[in-house]
Write a structure and sequence with these properties.
This protein has 11 helices and 8 strands. By secondary structure, the protein is an alpha/beta fold. The protein has an 8-stranded parallel β-barrel with strand order 1-2-3-4-5-6-7-8.
């Protein structure tokens, strides 16, 4: 299994703007991970031109993130499910044309529940919205990933168990989990739970490269009570579940850190 994971693992770079694509390619990345809003800000005519240019770069656009614009909260009173579903039909159509296979939703502000008795109703509305998005992405062959987030980012879906519970209640086969290195600390995640739900994890990313300074020679050590776990520790967990999909690196990653990550993956 380890050999399979090593063979199929791919490395991406998270970028915020189309203008950063060329630099990512020069740094040796084969995949770039863009926010959906960067594609949706284009008018129809411009999108056709940009799509041609992007497909000619030779890069893969198999992962996109942040399906909704900043500031949109799906669990607030008055959220218009149908209006935003229409927006997502267009958005998902566009990213599908670019080759998207995985869409990651890790925006904490998009799912903050009011501290009121109606929270139960709003959770049901969220599940309905999630079901509808899953249907749209399923038709395009896209896996839709939810990320468990800590209480500083949101007050809803703060653990692996809660995310798994929502995925189960919605019941769509193309729903999965995304996991970031910081989530381990921020949600008090247990390693045994990650292993237990490993088959549901369809995307992973490192959100800090502070410990990367040239090729890595360290060991996988358990994270301290605060901060972000050492990247090697996170990679070792992914190796434990035979993870063989995409690992995205943050925007400040370069060719040196990409090489360091690859070396670390082969060691853990």
């Amino acid at each position: 299994m380890k050999g399979k994971a090593t063979m199929n693992l791919r490395w991406a770079k998270r970028i915020g703007h189309l203008s950063e694509i060329e630099q990512a390619k020069k740094q040796g990345f084969q995949i770039v991970q863009l926010p959906v809003t960067e594609i949706m800000r284009l008018d129809d005519h411009t999108f056709i031109d940009i799509k041609e240019r992007l497909l000619k770069t030779g890069l893969s656009f198999e992962v996109f993130e942040s399906p909704l614009p900043e500031g949109v909260n799906t669990t607030e009173r008055g959220f218009n499910i149908y209006a935003w579903i229409e927006y997502l039909k267009k958005a998902i159509g566009r990213i599908s044309e670019l080759g998207c296979k995985t869409l990651v939703w890790g925006d904490g502000q998009a799912r903050i529940l009011p501290q009121e008795s109606e929270a139960t109703v709003l959770k049901e509305n969220f599940n309905q919205f999630l079901f509808m998005v899953a249907e749209i992405t399923e038709k395009k062959g896209i896996v839709f990933c939810l990320e468990p987030l800590g209480p500083k980012k949101t007050n809803f879906l703060n653990s692996l168990e809660e995310v798994v519970g929502v995925l189960g209640s919605v019941g769509k086969k193309n729903l999965a989990i995304a996991i970031a290195s910081s989530d381990i600390i921020e949600t008090n995640m247990k390693i045994e739970d990650i292993v237990h739900y490993g088959d549901l994890i369809a995307h992973a990313y490192l959100d800090s490269l502070e410990d990367f300074a040239g090729p890595i020679m360290g060991k996988a050590t358990f994270p301290k009570a605060s901060g972000t776990p050492h990247p090697i520790f996170f990679l070792s967990i992914l190796k434990k579940i035979s993870y063989n999909k995409v690992i995205a690196l943050p925007n400040n990653a370069d060719s040196e850190t990409l090489l360091s990550c690859k070396e670390a993956w082969n060691r853990v």
